[in-house]
């Protein structure tokens, strides 16, 4: 019998277990270097004594326009946020466009205008770029890659090894809005209340947090794979357990309703304007106070704690008192969400 | 009458006139900032007193494997070379993959291995990345974006404003090999002699050139749009004329033969391992001597001079003594060449 040829599956792009394994076994093992092996939201290094962060993401969201944003806004905010999660102040972005022959130029203009507005909002400049055009059918309208450079804030020391038992886990707001907004638009669902993507730049918030609370040990934006996958990665990297309180998890009732109807799990849904913060309990009030001052995090709350038990695992304390293990996302929940 | 809706054409990705106008009118005008407006191969700026270069390119070459390289090698060399053209020593690259569902993983591995080898050859590290998967038909197998960061060499002052009448134009070797190699593979042409892409990292050569000959005023790699388009951009930016000697232009006889057969013009064909150097005539021997020591530039030669006449234009002195104006590439010669 021949070996069955292994093929790329949609799940390899989910941000969950399959993505993780593909990247580890193929990219990280080939490009072998300590910066990449960190598997953080970006790489951190020094050039000429300046501490920098560097990150990239490609955006293939479908549809290109959705409630609360479009592919252009997403492409800027996503990369700005990844730099912020490295403890960096974002400065410069690149923009690489892959356009499909036949794309209306008016639509490109609209997307570029969204990028301009988001860059202005985040205080970054798009300074270099590239435009490729492929024949009809060889790309779905437009894909955008952005890469970004930022300067690590002197106060920042964001690393999983600083996550310790006793620290609390704070999330900046409602979970799953982005995924449900995109999904509803894609499938033309009529929902009782319109759900709007949370897509937003978080660098202003993060800069204030890190300046005022250097005790913050870890930051991460729960995008593809959702909160559960992000926390699993951190639990594994830090060698700690994480226990979430189900009753504390912020999910809008309308998002919960859609999830129940369609069988989605909000903890695995992508967010594009949320941050998870780890900090000693004594600083949690200070963190929340700062968060309440920013619109992007006005509904922040403590959702769990770091434990010295069950290292590498994430557990959910359910409202009925049980304890449920939350694994990384396996397979694919919603393709092309960002 | 309604306005006809303007659509993206393949020619908008050619690297020629249409690309130039699209980028200028849509991207540069929206993202308005002086770094982007330079329209160099990359942006140059300082962070914390360190002078950096930053660049990006997406790669959509078809087919993915061709004589002399593949999309992975191209994605590393292209970005390394763009940094070198900024007068920078390349340090770090990002890699963003967009994969089609169903792509054989063995093929991805092969491409990633090419990237590893090319990065090692160029002395750079791939330190951050992203992987997206889209459903069958939404991308043509694999597209790769790379962005890169380098440190500007202290001796380097690469800018069109230093290009002055009397300087000579040197090209590092044969023109058009990459485009013809890809095109032949794409269309299954059987050529009398196999033509191999020139895809190669140039940063070693450039670093030596800039260290030994700081008088070098301008560097550019004539990729999409070819030598003629590159020189038109420089002539316009510098406000000078450029006169090429047709008899000096290095084109392999087998490339010239394919071009004649199919109606291509070698001066508009993409190169992926060539550099054009501008320097005062007194330093040209020194530049050539260094070039001859590197395999990538062992057939370098002087191909023309900078003139104070016909500012902004490029002319070709033909072998029969005439003078022919060379415009930028208009429309599309060979789509998806890189």
Automatic annotation (TrEMBL), chains A, B:
SUPFAM superfamilies: PurM C-terminal domain-like (SSF56042), PurM N-terminal domain-like (SSF55326). Gene3D superfamilies: PurM-like C-terminal domain (3.90.650.10), PurM-like, N-terminal domain (3.30.1330.10). This is [NiFe] hydrogenase metallocenter assembly protein HypE. It comes from Sporomusa ovata. InterPro entries: HypE, PurM-like_C_dom, PurM-like_C_sf, PurM-like_N, PurM-like_N_sf. Residues 41-151 form the PurM-like N-terminal domain. GO terms for biological process: protein maturation. Residues 164-310 form the PurM-like C-terminal domain. Pfam families: AIRS (PF00586), AIRS_C (PF02769). Belongs to the HypE family.
